[in-house]
Amino acid sequence: MKKIKVSALELATICKNADAADAIARAVEGAQAIDNLGYERMWLAEHHNMPHIASSATSVLIGHIAGKTTRLRVGSGGIMLPNHTPLVIAEQFGTLESIYPNRIDLGLGRAPGTDQLTAMALRRNNMQTSFYFKDDILELQRYFDANNVHAKVRAFPGEGQHVPIYILGSSTDSAYLAAELGLPYAFAAHFAPAMLAQASEIYQANFKPSKVLAAPYFIVCVNIVAAETMDEAGLEANSLFNLFAGIITNVRKPLSPPTPQPVYAGIPEIENAVHSMTACTFIGTEDTIRTEVLEFAEKYKADEIMTTNYIFDNNKRLLSFKIIAKALLNS
How far apart, in Å, are the Cα atoms of 54 and each of 91, 104, 209? Predict the structure, then answer.
């Protein structure tokens, strides 16, 4: 098995009896922990109109976490590009790169990161922007290009800076686009695993080398709940499953302590839906995580595994990051 990189996806999820400030502080503490453990990067996800998520101002939070860490790459997983103009994103990430050189990533997605009504509020009724995702990426690349000096519109800061762009997706469309543009590709298997196999095959088979990437680079985001015993890991995972049940039933709640069994136990419709959404979830001890995740990475030709962490207790959350590092980075 080849050596893989390990990273983390952070949504600054608000816990029960806590607020956004607490969630951001918790995200910083997690970033500092994985920085010391040798993780490659932490990405922040853009979501809007979600009361228990504190990562809506993604660029601001990236800067905050980058300022509190030393080595870790920090970026977006992702910026939902149709919500923004490419020039503004080039300026924001050019600014971040100026402050934290060689540590900033720009992951881009085409979904709104919210519901349609909120998308309209973000896009000011211009609901066709997602159809221009490829064009917007190319425009963004031009703003970063050092050869853009003669253009009438330029990004300051941004021009001439190396901000790596990643395509994010949960479908085959994004796989084709990442392959066509010769860009690294990150797949959201942590909540939409259904097309993972197809997307991996399409990306690998159709990849065209570019000036930024000679060969495919594939990141897969999954859920990992690691603990010192199988029983403890299984219990802590119920916080994750209950959170997904809230998404499915549209009864959203803060991240809460684990219940002895999932709150939807005995309701087949919800059980099946949660199982489908969380099919790429790994639960267990160091040995279990090592075996199962490395086999998974080899099967889907993943160069990097990105993990979520929905463990309620912060000490157990940090311990999970440590166990994952021992399992995957020290193997």
Answer: 22, 20, 37
- At 185-224, the pLDDT tens digits run 999 999 999 999 999 999 999 999 999 999 999 999 999 9
Token pair 């504190």 in the structure block, residue: 54
The Cα–Cα gap between 193 and 184 comes to 18
Strand boundaries in 183-280, DSSP class E = 185-187, 218-226
* Model pLDDT for residues 14-61, shown as the tens digit of each residue: 999 999 999 999 999 999 999 999 999 999 999 988 899 999 999 999
Going by C-beta distance under 8 Å and a sequence separation of 6 or more, which residues neighbour residue 23? 12, 13, 14, 15, 54
- Side chain identity, residue 59: S
Beta-ladder partners of 105: 75
pTM beyond 0.85: the answer is yes
